[in-house]
Structure formats: C-alpha cells, structure tokens
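To the wet lab folks,

You asked to see what we're planning to order before we commit. Fair enough. Below is the target structure as tokens, and below that is the sequence we designed to fit it. If anything looks off to you, flag it before the synthesis order goes out.
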C-alpha cells in the first residue's frame, strides 16, 4: 500500500511522455485471463522515481546511524576505553550528518527536475528490494550492524580494488553470512541507475 504522502504526490503527465498500452486477451483463449499492460515511463519520471527511493534510503540510514550512535555506552571503567567509545560515537554521528547532506542533495535534485520533494518512508512490502541496502531496523551498535552499514556505503568493486580494500570488504561480507546470512546492497546502485537515465531510454514494466 502506498503511503499517504506518496498518494498525494501524483502528477498528470501528458502524452507522449507517459504511454500506456493495453492488450486484452481474446475471450476464446481463457475466460479468466486478465488484461496485460505495458507501461512506458519517460526519463524525467524514471529519475523522480529513483530519487524518491534515494531520499527514503538516505533518510532511513540517517535514523539508523543516529540510533546506533546513542546506544554506545560511554560509562566505561577505564578512561582509555571511554575515549575509544566516545570516538566511535562521534564518528558515527559525523556519518549521520553526512546522510543529512545526502538527503538534502537528493531533494535539491528533485527540485531541479521539477519533481515533488519526498520525506516519506518506504512502502511495505518494498517495491524495489534490490535498491534497498537492507530492511529498516533500529538496533544497537554491534559488529553485525556495523558490518551492514559499512557494506551499504561501499563504492563499486573496481574502486575497492584500486583502493586495496576488496579483501577487507570481502571479509566483512563473510562475517555477515556467518552471523545470519544477511545480504546488503550498495546505496550507490540507486545513483548508478540515475546516471543511466537518458533521453530516449524508456523504462518498461518498472525496470531501467
């Protein structure tokens, strides 16, 4: 079910920017067979849809990082350990602030192309699960939750190779499989798709 805010942000797009073609199967084939539809979506609408997903993801990550940061217990018996955990908290809070900046950037891009601003949560069930890093969950900071956050923020594999970080990231992926077989998708996949949106590149049946 679409969220209330999303239902309010529907705009009419004149032909030929949005074309809907319907084909009703002949009654002789099957009385129960339904109509099938092919939906062609213009590049601008593709970009808006993907940026909405990006806004939802950045907003969700920001909330999860803030929650994780404030679950860190600063009451440590030794001063050296207290300084360590304080540094961990400050690092995660700094990343959460970066997510705020990412969210603002996505909203600016929506404004630039004339799309509605978007501050809503994702639909349930998630329409594009492969574009979501992992299911939203507010959880205390742990090695497993931190591993999810790291993998969500990783760049493309060729960049990891150039930076000499591929083996380290592969080890983190393995730890997630051992700890619960969790699959994490990169946030960058959303913006990779945005970069592939071009005039004349029509999205059919929900895929770019």
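Sequence we intend to order:
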């Amino acid at each position: 079910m679409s969220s209330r805010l999303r239902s309010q942000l529907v705009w009419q797009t004149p032909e030929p920017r949005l074309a809907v073609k319907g084909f009703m199967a002949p009654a002789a084939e099957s009385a129960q067979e339904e109509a099938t539809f092919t939906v062609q979506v213009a590049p601008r609408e593709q970009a808006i849809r993907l940026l909405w997903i990006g806004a939802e993801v950045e907003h969700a990550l920001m909330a999860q990082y803030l929650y994780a940061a404030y679950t860190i217990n600063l009451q440590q018996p030794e001063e050296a350990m207290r300084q360590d955990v304080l540094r961990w908290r400050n690092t995660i809070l700094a990343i959460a602030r970066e997510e705020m900046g990412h969210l603002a950037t996505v909203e600016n891009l929506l404004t630039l192309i004339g799309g509605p601003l978007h501050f809503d949560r994702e639909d349930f069930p998630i329409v594009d699960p492969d574009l979501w890093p992992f299911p939203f969950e507010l959880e205390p900071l742990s090695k497993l939750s931190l591993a999810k956050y790291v993998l969500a923020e990783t760049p493309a594999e060729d960049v990891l190779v150039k930076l000499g970080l591929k083996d380290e990231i592969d080890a983190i992926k393995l730890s997630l499989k051992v700890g619960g077989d969790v699959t994490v998708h990169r946030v960058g996949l959303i913006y990779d798709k945005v970069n592939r949106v071009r005039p004349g590149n029509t999205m059919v049946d929900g895929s770019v």
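Structural context that might help your review: The chain has seven helices and three strands. Residues 4-24+34-195 form a domain with the Ferritin fold (CATH 1.20.1260).

Thanks,
Computational group
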